[in-house]
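Researcher: Here's a chain I'd like modeled. Treat it as a single chain, no partners, no ligands.
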Amino acid sequence: MQGRIAHNSAERTVIHTENLTRRFGDFVAVDHVNLDVAAGQVLGFLGPNGSGKTTTIRMLLGLLRPSAGRAEVLGLDVTRHPEAVRARTGYMSQKFALYGELTVLENLAFYAGVYGINDAARLREIIHNLGLAGMDKQRVNTLSTGWRQRLALAIAIIHRPPLLFLDEPTSGVDPVARRAFWELIYDLAAQGVTVMVSTHYMDEAEYCTQVGVMRAGRLLALDEPERLKRSLPGQVWEVHADPLLDALDCLEAQPFVLRAGLAGDHLRVVLPPNVSSDAIRRTLLDRSIHVQTLTPGVPTMEDVFMTLATAADAL
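Model: Modeled as a single isolated chain. C-alpha cells:
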C-alpha cells in the first residue's frame, strides 16, 4: 500500500514540536519529543500502551497543556490557539463517542451540525465514500466494532480537515476490518489529508510513509519504515533449534545477542554486525541444544522496535 502515494519533500510542515513534554506529578508521560511532519504524510506513531502516544496527540490537539516545550499544528501554536487547532483538524479517539440509540445518519448529522455543516449532500457523499450506504438508518448499538469504526472516521472528517489524528483506531477489530480501515486512510491521504495514527500493531507501521517509535515517553526514532529496517544495527537470523525454549533462554542471556525472541516455531535473533552466526551455533551446541537450521532473516518493524527499546532500557 505504501506505493500509492507520491510525496513532495518541499511540502510544508503541518506538525512541529520542540522538546514537547508532559508530566503528571513526578511521572513523565512525554519526554522532550521533537517531531516534524510534512503535509501529505501518513505518520505511524508506534509503541505499546502507556508509551505516551495518546498524551502527545492530546497536546497536539490543545486538549492538554504541555509541561514544557512547544508545538505548532497547521502553523498554530497549540497553547495559544487550541480551539482554532481543533476546528481545522479531525480526531478519532480510542473510544468512539457515538450515540448508540441514534442511527448512523443521525449521529453523522449531529456531529456535522457541531461543525456548522447542514449540507445534506455532504452527508450523502461521506456515507458513500466510507461504504456506509444502506446502513444509514441502522442504530449504532447494533453495529459491529468495524462499522462503528467507519462511522467514527466519517464523523472525524465530516468538516474536511487537512490534518487527521487517529488514536489506535483499529484496536479490537478483526484483521479484515483493520485492512479495510487502512484502505480508507490511504484514500484520504491520496486526497491530500495528512494523517497521524497511533498504533501498537507492528505490522500496521509497514503501511505508513513515516514511523515514529515511542517508548516510555521518548521518541526513539522517526523515519520511513524501510530506512528504519535498513538501519537495524545488526543481522537477523532465523534459528530452528531443539528444545526451542531452552535455546531462547540461552541466547537471551548472551551479551553478544542484541535481541532474541520467539517467532512461531523458531527464534529470531539479532546479532551485531561484527558477530557471525557461528556464535549462535557454538553457544547452543555447548549446551547440548541441537541447531536444526540457521538462516539469514529479513528485518521487520518488530525487530526495529524491540532492538531500539532494549537499547533504550539499558541506558
